[in-house]
Amino acid sequence: MEAMPAAGVAIATKDTQESDRPGRSEPRVRKRRPKVYPLMTKPRHELRKQLQTA
Fold it and tell me: Is the pLDDT of residue 20 over 90?
């Protein structure tokens, strides 16, 4: 039995067409604003130690 790769693509692109729920559509916006924090480049326990000693 061979899998149909196109079936997954059809489901993934159906986001804007909600034919089974008329009058409803998903907003194409981000929910939250990005925050300006640096990326975590060290293990969490090392960063906690730095915060406690600072």
Answer: no
